[in-house]
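The freezer alarm interrupted the setup, so I double-checked each line after restarting. Inputs confirmed:
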Amino acid sequence: MNKPDPLQNVRVVLVCTSHPGNIGAAARAMKTMGLETLYLVRPRRFPDSEATAMASAAVDVLERARLCDTLDEALEGTVLAAGLTARRRDLAPRLLTPRAAAPELLGAAQAGPVAVVFGNEANGLTSEELQRCQIVVHIPGNPRYNSLNLGAAVQVMCYELRMAIPELACVEVPAFEPARHEDVEQFYAHLERTLLAVGFLDPRQPKRLMQRLRRLFARARLEKEEVNILRGILKAVGGE
Amino acid sequence: MNKPDPLQNVRVVLVCTSHPGNIGAAARAMKTMGLETLYLVRPRRFPDSEATAMASAAVDVLERARLCDTLDEALEGTVLAAGLTARRRDLAPRLLTPRAAAPELLGAAQAGPVAVVFGNEANGLTSEELQRCQIVVHIPGNPRYNSLNLGAAVQVMCYELRMAIPELACVEVPAFEPARHEDVEQFYAHLERTLLAVGFLDPRQPKRLMQRLRRLFARARLEKEEVNILRGILKAVGGE
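Predicted 3D structure, all chains:
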């Protein structure tokens, strides 16, 4: 009863890539985010040992990469294509951030394959290539230096695609049992008795010591096991 | 009257980096997102020509990088540190995504320097190193292959830091003048007359042709100049 994974319907298209190392880095970036389909339009060198080295454990993505002569060939069958650009384009159909584009791409990926298209390292996509895309994506950055490495740009875009799927966008939190209210209150009482016993808390001038300590432990959201440890410590220093 | 830039208060700390190329890639990733402060704890080789090559136009970040013997030295003065990990850590103080961690880091950066800490390529940060961080960050990814390249991980984290600053997280949309309601309505009227004149629209069986066309152009959110172009076309095909 697994739902179809929309990331499987996203192809990454690299157009006229100059450095094979960047193709490998892109494959690795894709695989870390769960994407697998790579199209290469007229790469300068491919296959290449540098690509393989940079792909690390994502060589399978490289091996299944499809070589194309034209961008049209790489976009065949797609229902939506997003072209990445480092420059502001006056005639962009719609200019979006990766964060805004990702849900749209994934929505369309329910209906058919979609593509994210990256141009050559030095020149990016040409106007003609961008005009084959319905969406133009710009990664917000330092206006004085906005030239992301190709592999890094692929990583950001694939990361946003994954983050746009709520069930994949979280990290598993270790499942420790949280402390219950009464356990925490008993700890506070134990702590107060101990601080009185060792003379740190002056009952005639308590100031706001217990409030400060409560605030600290409240922020920490104590776990059951931690309360046991803390009470063990209190016992060890002589607090009954 | 510029507000202080919180990104200037974020230092990137690379611990025991093996490959100098990754130090350069990290510097480039930082600069593209507006970060400038790099600390290197016991890098295997630095300075190095590979680092310089991979830094591209971010060599200034490398040149100002500070070399440290220990992580404590690199964290001196910081008020909050986030350590990146590719593994789920049972004893993580708090495990967050980059997206959840970024606003917290920037909030703390108002009070003092903060750090994002990246471990060695093969082994990541040790438990001892992670325990010096108040936040542990995990980049959500493919559970079967979650090994981001170091430079790519730095790119994702720096990107999220920039995206957490609302005024930096958008792309400038080209300022074309939108068409006004009455201009668009006059275009529709002109279009309808033309379609009638050329015999494409049958007045006895109009079906929903005009509705379909309105729907199309509504989605496009016509610009003033585009209305002029479209009406020019209608005129050229003989529609008055």
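Quick read of the result. Chain A has two domains: 7-168, 181-236.
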